[in-house]
Design a protein that fits this description.
614 residues; alpha+beta; Threonyl-tRNA Synthetase, Chain A, domain 2; BirA Bifunctional Protein, domain 2; 4 domains; five-stranded mixed sheet; 18 helices
């Protein structure tokens, strides 16, 4: 449920998402059944549901091609139309192990071995399990329809019959390679992606959105506009910001700093590495070790490149004693962190190994939580709105089964989050038990120009780090107590947010963000001197401007400016030189006519200040 601000608070339980989850999960199984029917000897791996569909990984004796997808779809539709039952069965570990071994399904065996002892093991059948035999093949021939079945180890959920799936509301989308368990040392499998919906109309709408998403792909646009690159020579997942991309980043950072200073935050800068013991104290070494790079040895001490900024802010707090009168303290940092991601998981700017978080931490009293959360929501709304995002999905995640902290503190913090959301009038979805082990949280997903949701902003209350680090303040009664710590990020990371911006605007950034705001197009070398003088005047006014001195014909100069998505371009000819003017055109509004240079500067400055388009 996407909430458009401001609206009254409403708790939403999205039953449709659960129904779609069942449909998609069953579609994944049906796809695997179809693949094993078509290519005998295929081994199946995993087949989970994704946000908009499903996939399955296969170890297949042939290379599946895009042309094969229609063949698989046809087989899937035949299975759906038979309206076969989907049956759940609890199984005993050793019995199912013997059956899997007889079927020669190594990936199923690996999955079974990863299921903890004592946990219930289930499998789901497509078709009747009554006829199943340990030594039979996974798919029984079409000539024996009464005995046709297929199964996989699975926790569910699924629909009850294959006929509940609309045969015209699913599609197989594309192929990819995937290492088993994401480990490059293990076999590479063939992955087939698909999507499924309740109706044909929903499928068509999604496919149209997907086509538009491909057109807006930030990797493609980033290369076309020369904004950034991922240099494999330096290692995967590391972003190189080119001059135009860096110009946009500068605007984002400059805006971010001013917005935070206006909201009474103070700015911090902290190191990139620290003694490994710091990460053991914070708990990251125990709970986050798989996502941390290996430590390095410096003078016989282990140092760790930072995956988080939080412990550094905690140490800054602990550097001197604090009184309740000083709280709340609001500290913000654009801090670059490094996290280990497998190469198969890397994806442009969206999934990288080094990125800059717009981190902030608030240290406050228990009775200040609600006001501080409200302040964060207000700041989040302002910043996201200024970048063009008006619609959000808001989730409130409450205490999980495994957690730290007293019940009364959890209740106080959760009530404070609810109070802040109610005061804002925002709709939200309650995710029962979805909070972090150290406190409840609010997550905000932004809706882009083509309706996709992106997880960006998060606000988390933390009772854990203050206790781990023995943080304290002197209360009004003179007793030393633990402060409440609030973690929050609005962009999430600059890299990922930049990728979202590229796709939201399809590279056609609003004037205030555009790397080149004005391009001057001299029609001949005679007027080049005047164009350079005007460019200097525009630069002095704070505008980002360049002169195209390539000596091309005017038509080619205009087309180039449009392809490069320059918001404003001014044609310079003899008449413009004589009248000290420019003939101005914009990408959005077309021809603005002949303008005095001073008038153009005033108009552009107004548009930039208002963060609108011209």
């Amino acid at each position: 449920m996407v909430s458009s601000l401001p609206q009254s608070q409403e708790q939403v339980k999205n039953q449709d998402s659960q129904k779609l989850k069942r449909i998609r999960h069953t579609c994944a199984h049906i796809m695997a059944m179809a693949v094993q029917e078509i290519w005998k000897g295929t081994h199946v791996a995993i087949g989970p549901v994704t946000e908009t569909g499903f996939f399955y990984d296969f170890d297949c004796p042939v290379s599946i091609t895009p042309d094969d997808l229609s063949k698989i779809e046809a087989s899937m539709r035949r299975i759906i139309k038979k309206n076969l039952p989907i049956i759940r069965e609890e199984v005993k570990r050793e019995e199912i192990r013997s059956e899997i071994t007889a079927l020669d399904e190594p990936y199923k065996l690996d999955i079974l071995n990863r299921i903890p002892e004592g946990e219930i093991i289930t499998r789901y059948y497509i078709g009747s399990p009554d006829t199943a035999k340990p030594d039979s093949s996974l798919f029984v021939a079409e000539t024996l329809p009464a005995k046709q079945y297929w199964w996989d180890l699975c926790a569910g959920p699924h629909v009850h019959f294959t006929g509940e799936i609309n045969p015209n509301a699913f599609a197989l989308l594309n192929l990819a390679g995937a290492y088993w368990q994401g480990d490059e040392t293990k076999p590479q499998l063939q992955r087939i992606y698909g999507t499924a919906w309740e109706t044909k109309e929903e499928l068509q709408a999604y496919l149209k959105q997907t086509e538009e998403a491909l057109r807006r792909d930030h990797r493609k646009i980033g290369q076309e506009l020369n904004l950034f690159s991922i240099q494999e020579e330096a290692g995967g997942g590391l972003v190189f910001w080119h001059p135009k991309g860096a110009a946009i980043r500068y605007q984002i950072e400059d805006y971010w700093r001013k917005a935070h200073l206006d909201a009474d935050y103070q700015l911090l800068y902290t190191p990139h590495v620290a003694n490994l013991d710091l990460w053991k104290t914070s708990g990251h070494y125990d709970f986050y070790r798989e996502s941390m790079f290996d430590s390095m040895d410096i003078e016989k001490q282990a140092y760790q490149i930072k995956p988080m900024n939080c412990p550094f802010h905690v140490l800054t707090y602990k550097n001197q004693p604090h009184s309740y009168r000083e709280l709340p303290l609001r500290w913000a940092e654009l801090g670059t962190v490094y996290r280990y991601e497998r190469s198969g998981a890397l994806h442009g700017l969206m999934r990288v190994r080094g990125f800059t978080q717009d981190d902030a931490h608030i240290f406050c009293l228990p009775n200040q939580i609600a006001n501080e959360i409200l302040g964060v929501l207000n700041l989040t709304e302002k910043i996201l709105s200024d970048f063009g995002f008006q619609n959000y999905e808001v989730n409130l995640s409450t205490r999980p089964n495994k957690s730290v902290g007293e019940d009364e503190v959890w209740e106080l913090a959760t009530d404070a989050l609810v109070s802040a959301l109610n005061t804002k009038g925002w709709k939200y979805v309650v995710d029962e038990g979805g909070g972090a082990f150290y406190g409840p949280k609010i997550d905000i997903k932004i809706q882009d120009a083509i309706g996709r949701l992106w997880q960006c902003s998060t606000i988390q209350v933390d009772f854990n780090l203050p206790e781990r680090f023995d943080m304290e303040y002197v209360a009004a009664d003179g007793i030393k107590k633990l402060p409440i710590m609030i973690h929050r990020a609005i962009f999430g990371s600059l890299e990922r947010f930049f990728g979202i911006l590229i796709e939201n605007y399809a590279g056609d950034f609003p004037l205030w963000l555009a790397p080149i705001q004005v391009r001057l197009l001299p029609v001949s070398d005679e007027v080049l001197g005047y164009a350079e003088t005007v460019a200097q005047d525009l630069k002095k006014a704070g505008l980002r401007v360049e002169v195209d001195n390539t000596s091309e014909r005017l038509g080619k100069l205009i087309r180039t400016a449009e392809v490069e998505k320059i918001p404003v371009f001014g044609v310079v000819g003899k008449r413009e030189v004589e009248t000290n003017t420019l003939s101005v055109r914009t990408r959005k509004s077309g021809d603005l006519g002949v303008l005095d240079v001073s008038d153009l500067i005033s108009r552009l400055q107004e548009v930039i200040l208002a963060k609108t388009v011209i």
